[in-house]
Amino acid sequence: MDTNNYTLLTDFYEFTMANGFFNKGYGDKIAYFDMFFRRVPDDGGFAIMAGVEQLIEYLRKLSFTKEDIEYLRSKGIFSEEYLEYLKNFKFCCDVWAIPEGTPIFPNEPVVVVRGPVVQAQFVETMILLTINHQSLIATKANRIVRAAQGRPVMEFGSRRAQGYSAAILGARAAYIAGCAGTACAATDRDFGVTAMGTMAHSWIQLFDNEYEAFKTYAEEYPDSCTLLVDTYNVLKSGIPNAIKVFDEVLKPLGKRPKGVRIDSGDITYLSKECRKMLDRAGYTDCKIVASNSLDEYIIRDMIIQGAKIDLFGVGERLITSKSSPVFGGVYKLAAIENEDGEIIPKIKVSENVGKITTPGFKQVYRLYSRETSAAIADVITLHGEEIDDTKPYEIFDAEHSWKRKTVTDFYARPLLKPIFKKGELVYKQPSLETLREYCKMEIDGLWDEVKRFENPHKYYVDLSQKLWDIKYGLLGQYK
């Protein structure tokens, strides 16, 4: 459990806007904000939602310390009335979110916040920071896991992560997305993700020779012996010395080696030769582990080329999502309430069509085939609007509305779940194992074409007719 106080981890303009809202009498104005993203990292077909647990922790602990108030007072621009409000601050917003592990798509709300604008606006930074980071890493990790085609992938990126929290929480997100374990001991301690690891090259170098290094390690860890074989020469010394130690130390104890790890060189070629040598020595059950700046494309090509790899350790390119390091989620005002409780949709208009927002208080439905349970499309509706899955339902492209399809024999599931109601937590966070299994099940339910690494099929995310009418009605007002 993170005990840090992140209340001031926010953009300064959140304070200046809130101060202005408060002093002008708008502080209690009810506003609706959506978090959504515009593009899938790596131009993939889908992303994976992650970070809800940490968002819950942040919102539950949201309060201002005496030191926080004194810092804000020192800036000399905030009214004492506003500072007094912060001193007695109590979070009272409603929050909805799509559960962790769910495949998510551009332009659909993944978090919705309703509440007094001084509060709903203020939480923007931490919502984005929390969901953006973990969703980014979960998305990248799942691409790598899928590339491995059933071979376990271990997250090895702690030392290359961009900060302490990024290492710990990135490993958490990677586990939800399918990684088998992590090198990060803190993630094991905090979340129960199995910590994995063998040795560094320094272990080998410390001893007089490679054989002594292997022998000492095997004597110390006879039940979990995996040896790093590329410090000097994989085929001429690493594997021969490993086999010698397996024969002389493990075999007399009735133990079997767990594996060997290759961290450099042409790993595809080396793995094939290692497999032959290990098999001839009678160690057909000894696994071969590969590491060294791997990603989904390298892993895919290694497997195509016949590499004899049983497990992959993936570090920097996973934990930083190196090829596409920004998730790009945004947080936009979607509606306000007037004094009578009427919801007034709000829209942001831009000459850049991709930056035009979808107004209103919304829900997201996923439509599934009753025959195959495969996901057909997502439909963004007004909150409270229901999709009757007992009847045919017409979906259409929001930008090219002449593209239409009638869906039959389907069922509809709302994705946005209530998390907080008037500031009180109403959601039971699933276990990490449950999230991991749920994530796998949901991804298995996507079309294979959506899961392609290059040029994936575009998954349909449409608007209901009512919501489309509101959006394009507002756009017509700003011609």
What features would you describe in this structure?
The protein is an alpha/beta fold. The protein folds into two domains: 12-137 and 325-477, nicotinate phosphoribosyltransferase, CATH 3.20.140.10; 198-286, Aldolase class I (TIM Barrel, Alpha-Beta Barrel), CATH 3.20.20. The protein has helices at 12-23, 52-60, 66-74, 80-87, 117-120, 124-147, 164-176, 185-191, 201-206, 210-220, 234-250, 267-280, 296-304, 316-319, 432-444, 465-477, and strands at 30-37, 47-48, 94-97, 103-104, 111-116, 153-155, 181-182, 226-228, 259-262, 287-290, 311-314, 329-337, 343-345, 362-369, 375-382, 393-396, 404-407, 410-414, 417-421, 424-425, 461-463. The strands form five sheets. It has a seven-stranded antiparallel beta sheet. It has a six-stranded parallel beta sheet with strand order 7-6-11-10-9-8. A four-stranded mixed beta sheet has the order 18-14-15-21. Strand 16 (393-396) and strand 17 (404-407) form a beta hairpin. Helix 10 packs parallel to helix 11 (234-250) and helix 11 packs parallel to helix 12. The longest helix is centred in the N-terminal third of the chain and has 24 residues, at 124-147. The model has no long low-confidence stretch (mean pLDDT 96).
